[in-house]
Amino acid sequence: MAKIGFIGTGIMGLPMAQNLQKAGHSLFLSSHHGAAPTDLIAAGGVALANPKEVAQEAEFIIVMVPDTPQVEAVLFGENGVAQGIGPNKVVIDMSSISPTATKAFAEKIKATGATYLDAPVSGGEVGAKAATLSIMVGGCPKAFERAQPLFQAMGKNITHVGGSGDGQTAKVANQIIVALNIQAVAEALLFAAKNGADPAKVREALMGGFASSKILEVHGERMIKGTFDPGFRISLHQKDLNLALQGAKELNINLPNTANAQQVFSTCAAIGGANWDHSALVKGLEHMANFSIRGDK
Fold it and tell me: Which residues form the 3-hydroxyisobutyrate dehydrogenase-like NAD-binding domain (predicted)?
């Protein structure tokens, strides 16, 4: 069993860490941002003062924080992970951050003698709790093989995509597809309801044809019922679409539908929905149309 440093025990990180403990791995936790979760400590986790101390004790160091600046601070800030690592240690960033920044972070970690994997996840809180996350991994193939038992404790669909940054690139691609599908479902249900049809019946009919999808099944139901508790917060998906648009600018390509979805997400956040589930994108469309598919306006 492995000694694992786990930094970032929020909505996603906590159940991921718990699944590692259930698989028999030892956890070292950083208290630099607040007290380590009592559930993890009660199950044998060891709380240390900062990421540097965690890195000194662990063979694998997993980072699961919200965005690129937080990852950079954990890795390279005062008492950061980079100050506590060396040969034979593997840093695994499971956050969803910039692919460009990831490539730079990987080079800096490699300079210490350690190895770096970017391994963002998809599947939300439900997948984190059930250990069914999809995990997209970029980096050294040998390090990927070493880390496989950890990934298998947290997920089911585990893919080595390629070199450093490729895992993050796959995650951004995932978020583009999910966002555009959520927007398509929201627009279709809004169109149906505004035209006088029952959106629940329309969804039922569409589930039997080519329009059927996991998004229509899960998020379509949430839109109709108005159950927008997170899930995956719309503010985090908005952040991921920003990464996509920043990357598109760097690559000199145009992503018009992604840009449009980002605008609708921004509208939703502006009316107070930053902490809603990302299926609440429909609220942004409803706001612009001054019409609700649930009749709650």
Answer: 165-283
